[in-house]
Amino acid sequence: METLWFIIVAVMLAAYVVLDGFDLGAGVIYLLIAKTSDERRMVLRAIGPVWDGNEVWLLAAGGTLYFAFPVLYASSFSGFYLPLMMVLWLLMLRGMGIELRVHVDNPVWREFFDVVFCASSTLLPVFFGAALGNVIRGVPLGADGYFFEPLWTNFRAGAHPGILDWYTVMAGVVALVTLTTHGALYIAVKTEDELAGRARKLAVGLWPVQLLLTCVSLAATYYIRPQVMDNYRDHPIGLLVPVVVVGSLILIIWGARKGSDLAAEKLAFVGSSLYIAAMLVGAVFALYPMVLPATDPAYNLTIYNTAAGHHGLAVGVTWWVLGAVIALGYFVFIYRMFRGKVRLEGGGY
Amino acid sequence: MDSALLVHRLHFAFTVTFHYLFPQLTMGLAPLIVILKTLALRSKDQHKHEIYNQSARFWARIFGINFVLGVVTGIPMEFQFGTNWSHFSRFAGGVIGQTLAMEGMFAFFLESSFLGLFLYGEKRLSPRAHWWSAVAVFLGSWLSGFFIIATDAWMQHPVGYAFAPDGSVQLTSFWQLVLNPWAWWQYAHNMSGAAITGAFVMASVGAFYLLWGKYTEHGKIFVRVGVVAGCVFSFVQLFPTGDGQGKMIAHNQPVTLAAMEALFATQPNAPLVIIGQPDVDQKKIDNPLVVPSMLSELTYRRWKAQVQGLDAFPPALWPDNIPLLYYSYHIMVGLGTCFIAIMVVSAFLLWRGSLFRARWMLWILLLSLPFPYIANTAGWMTAELGRQPWLVYGLMRTADGYSKLVSAGNGMFTLLGFMGMYLVMGVLFLFLIRREIEIGPAADSAAGH
C-alpha cells in the first residue's frame, strides 16, 4: 500500500514537472525570443489556457503527499521553510504576471508584468532543482524526525548543509536548462514563423549544455550519495532509465534540427518530456523506499515510517482513481479545444 | 504567550483572512453568473439576449480577476499546514489529508480546466456549451468550499478517527468524516454567506450604474438579480443555517457559546447581550443593552432554561481572546440583521416597481458593499477564535501544533513578506476592479480580451 502511494505521488510530481515545466520554460525564454508585442501575446496564448491547470498538479501532488505521507509533509515543509515560502511568492508573482497583464492595454503596464513573469519563471526551476538536490543529498534530520535548514552555510555538502551548496546549486542549473529547452520546444510546436524558428534555435544551442550537465549531475550524484546505485544493482530493470534518457536526448536534437516540420517539433517535445520523466523516475527509483534521507542514516524517513494509517490509504485509492480519471478527461478535452498553432485573432491574452 | 506561537498564529490568520476576501466573491458570483447565462439563453428577444450576455461577460471579468487572486493567495494555505503547523500536520494529517487531497483531485482540476474555457472560450463554444462551462466553474468552486469546510469542521468537531500507537490520529471512517453534521451546517452557513457577498456586490454595482445614469439597462438587471438573491440568502443565513450552526456550538462547545455571548455566570433566564463591552478581569459587561431571557429561548427554546456561563468551566478551557471573539460574533450577527432589513426593503420597492427611482435606497445598496465582507470575516473569526485554546477540539492545543523548529524570527520574516506582497496585490486588485466598473458592461470586451 505504501509503495503504491509512493508511485502515485511520484507520478503526480513528474506530471507536474512535465506539464508546468513547459509553461515555466516558456516564461524563461519569453523576453529572449519574443521581441514584439504580438510575439509576446503569442507565447502567452500558447500557455494561457493551460498553465493554471498544469500548476494544479503541484497542489494536487502536495495534497496527496500530505494525505499519504503526513509525517514526510510535516517534516520536509517545515524544514525547507524559507525556500518554500520564496517558491510561494514566486508562484504568486508569476500567476499575476500572466493573468493581470491582459487587463490593461498600456505598454508600461505590460512591460512590468512581462519582467515579473519572466523573472519568476526563471527562478522557480532553480528552486525546484535545488529542492530535488536537497532530497537526494539528504537533510540534517533529528531523532524526532524534524529539521530546519538555513538557506546556506558554507556551500559544502557536509554534516551541516544549507539549502544551497555546490551540489544543489548544480541541480538548480540542470533544472533550469532542462525546462528552458522544454519550454522552447513547446513554443516551437505551438507557434509559427520567426518565433518558432528562434525557439528551435535556442533548443539546438542548449542541447550540448544539457548533455554535459546530464553527465556531470549523474557523476556528482554518485559522488555525493554512492548508495544511489544499490537499487539499480538489485533490480537491473532500473537500467532502462538511462536508456530512455539517452534515447530522449537523441530525439530532442533530431527533432529540433529538422526545421519547420510539425511532426519533428512534436517528437522533440515528446523527447524532452520523456527526458524529464526519466530523470525523475531515475531519482525516485534510486531513493526508494526512502523519501527523505538524513545526514545521519539512522534518522532516514522512509515510506514506512511516514505513511498515514492503513484504512485511510485504502479508502484513498478509490477516490484517487476516480478523481484522476475525471481529471485526465478534462485535460484531454482542454488540450483538444486549444490544439493546433496559436493565432492572434479572437479573445484572450 | 510564546512569541513563536504568536507569529505562527498571526501568519495563518493574516494570510487566510486576506485569501478569503476573494473566494467568497467567486463562490457567491458563480451561481449568479449561471443565472445571467440562463436568462440570456432563455430570452427570445435579441436585444435582451445581448444585454444578459453582456452582463454575464462583465461579471465573468470581475470573477476572473477575483479568481486569480483567490488562486494565488490560496496556494500558501495548503503549504502552511506543513511549513508553519508541522506538529499539527503530523498529528492530524492521517485524517484531514483526506479532505485536502480530495479538494485537489476533485475541485481544483475541475475549476482550473473550465475557467479558461469560460473566460476565453465563448467564441469557440456553442452558447449551451459555454453555459455548461459556467456551471462547471460554479460546481468546482462550491466543491472546493466543501472540502475546506469539512477539514475545518473536523478540527471543530473531530469524528471518525482513532489514536495510532505513535500518538497521531488516523482515519477509521471515511463517511463519518465527510458526513460530519458540523460540516454540513457550517457549509450551508458559509456558502449562504458567500452568496450574500455575491448578491450585495452585484446589487451595489447595479445601484452605482443607476445613480450614475450610465449602463442603466444592465444596472437594473444587476440590482434585480442581486436583491432577489440577497433577500433569499439573508434569511437563509439566519434560519436555518445560522440557527443550526449555533446549536452545534451550544451542544459541542458550550464554553465557546458562553464566551461568544460574554455570559460569565451560569443562570436561568439568561439574557442576550445586544451591545456592551466585556470586561474579562471583572467578569462583567460594561454599558450593556440586553434582551432578558432571550439567550435561553434561542439556545434551548425555553425562556427559563439554564445556560452555562464561563464560570462552569475551568479558565484553562476558555477561549484565549474572549473580547475579540465576542466582538466578532456580535459584528457578524448585527450586520446579518442589517442585511435582512436592507434586502427586505429593497425587495418590497422592487415588487412595487419603484426601486430604480428610489435614489436613497440605491445609495444604501451602493454603500453596503463592504459589509458582507466584514460579516464573513467576522464569522470566520468567531469560528476560529471560538475553537481556542484548541487546534483540534479536545485533542490538540494550538500551542502544541506549530513548527517548533521554525523560529519566531523566520516566521516574522515571511509574515512581513506576505504583508508586503498582499499590499501590492490589494492595490492592483482595487485598481483593476475600479477600471472594469468604469469601462462597464456595454463595452464588448476589456482591452486584450
Please render the helix and strand layout as text.
The complex is a heterodimer of chains A (349) and B (449).
Chain A: H1 2-33, H2 37-47, H3 51-68, H4 70-79, H5 81-100, H6 107-137, H7 166-190, H8 193-224, H9 230-234, H10 240-257, H11 262-287, E1 290-292, E2 301-302, H12 303-306, H13 310-337
Helix pairs in contact in A: 1-2, 1-3, 1-6, 1-7, 1-11, 3-4, 5-6, 6-7, 7-8, 7-11, 8-10, 10-11
Chain B: H1 3-20, H2 23-42, H3 46-83, H4 86-120, H5 127-156, E1 161-163, E2 169-171, H6 174-178, H7 181-212, H8 216-252, H9 254-260, E3 267-268, E4 272-279, E5 284-291, H10 294-300, E6 306-307, H11 322-352, H12 359-367, H13 370-387, E7 390-392, E8 396-397, H14 408-439
Antiparallel strand pairs in B: 1-2, 3-6, 4-5, 7-8
Helix pairs in contact in B: 1-3, 1-14, 2-3, 2-5, 2-7, 3-4, 3-8, 3-14, 4-5, 5-7, 7-8, 7-12, 7-13, 8-9, 8-11, 11-13
What can you see in these coordinates?
The complex is a heterodimer of chains A (349) and B (449). With 349 residues, chain A is mostly helical. Chain A has one domain (2-337). Chain A is built from 13 helices and two strands. Chain A has helices at 2-33, 37-47, 51-68, 70-79, 81-100, 107-137, 166-190, 193-224, 230-234, 240-257, 262-287, 303-306, 310-337, and strands at 290-292, 301-302. The model of chain A has no long low-confidence stretch (mean pLDDT 90). By secondary structure, chain B is mainly alpha-helical. Chain B has a domain at 180-401. Helices cover 71% and strands 7% of the residues of chain B. Chain B has 14 helices and eight strands. Chains A and B meet through helix 3, helix 4, helix 5 and helix 13 of A and helix 3, helix 4 and helix 14 of B.
